[in-house]
Amino acid sequence: MLFEVEELTKKYRQHTAVESISFGIEPGSCVALLGRNGAGKTTTLQMIAGLLEQTSGKVSFMGKPYIDKKHIGFLPQYPQFFSWMTAEQYLHFVGSLSEVKKNVLKEKIAEVLSFTGLEQARKRKISGFSGGMKQRLGLAQALIHNPTLLLLDEPVSALDPEGRREVLQLLFQLKEKMTILFSTHVLHDAEQVCDSVVMLREGSLVWSGSLEQLKSENEELTFFIEADSSLEPVIQEAKDIVSVHYYEKGKVDVTFVNVKASQQFIQKCVELSVTILQFQRKRDTLEDMYLKVMES
Ligand code: ATP
């Protein structure tokens, strides 16, 4: 594991923001931290980033029982900039704070500006940047010191579709180079880029693991079936059906207990002379599975 949290807890007086959560992240993975507003995502990320002290629990990072900030890049939910600075000046300032060596800082600034598509805007004042440009600059500052672990708090939520696409494309490229943990409530975006998820509900961990595992544990065996006549007689006689969703005559979604039940359904159609026009497996989205786990 690149890092692990063990029974991590944050209490504010009477209120417990994060309660005894434990999970680990493999090197090279891209993990989405999911949960409703107030679930504890920001608090968790801030504790991992070493910006907020936990009330109890442990964080181990690269085999050591503490967090070495020089290996972590952090993009806060609401990044603050000195808007009178240019992008280049700001990155110079942040790079110096992160102790990037003077002889490589200039090169590093050029590299992150190019990566985030801000080369042309490098001499422009941040006050004139769009939301998407500011988010990309936020990403550039998080990358300036070559972190091993990138922590991003809601990197796409506040952006318009174009800005979201730009940032997601950058994440696609970054996940080849470093480990990423990002919080979001835009599940469609999370599904495109992450390979594992951590789900929080009211400060507690509900589920963590790979997307594959989430699918195998929660994905239902649902088929969209279209026939040349009503499927009702088949549905009445078929066995091991979990649920049926009717669209119009001859069109239904049927959820089966297992694959065998779906094959028996086809056989029943043949027996009752109902011709199948379509028999298509429906894939659950991350949102479907998230709702199932959260509501269980
Ligand atoms: P969002 O998606 O809205 O950003 P979140 O999942 O990031 O939510 P947190 O910001 O981590 O949630 O907050 C978790 C809980 O802790 C919330 O109930 C919040 O009100 C509470 N909380 C956060 N910071 C403080 C604080 N400084 N003092 C008291 N309570 C706090």
Short précis:
With 296 residues, the protein is an alpha/beta fold.
How would you characterize the overall build of this protein?
There is one protein chain. The chain starts with a strand and ends with a helix. Helix 3 packs antiparallel against helix 4 (about 130-145) and helix 7 (about 210-220) crosses helix 10. It is of the alpha/beta class and about 300 residues long. It has a six-stranded mixed β-sheet, with helices on both faces. The protein has ten helices and 13 strands. Bound molecules: adenosine-5'-triphosphate. Adenosine-5'-triphosphate binds near residues 12, 17, 35, 39 and 40. The site of adenosine-5'-triphosphate has 11 residues, from strand 2 and helix 1.
Question: Main attributes?
Answer:
296 residues; alpha/beta; 6-stranded mixed β-sheet; 4-stranded antiparallel β-sheet; 10 helices; elongated; binds adenosine-5'-triphosphate
Taking pLDDT < 50 over at least 5 consecutive residues as the criterion, the unreliable ranges are none
Average pLDDT for all residues: 90
Q: Proportion of β residues? A: 25-35%
Question: Please, how many helices?
Answer: 10
The ordered H/E elements are EEEHEEHHHEHEHEEHEHEEHEH
Order of adjacent strands in the largest pleated sheet: 5-6-7-3-8-9
Major sheet details: 6 strands, mixed
Bound molecules: adenosine-5'-triphosphate
By secondary-structure content and strand pairing, the structural class works out as alpha/beta
Separation, N- and C-terminal Cα atoms: 28 Å
- Total beta strand runs: 13
Structural Rg = 24 Å
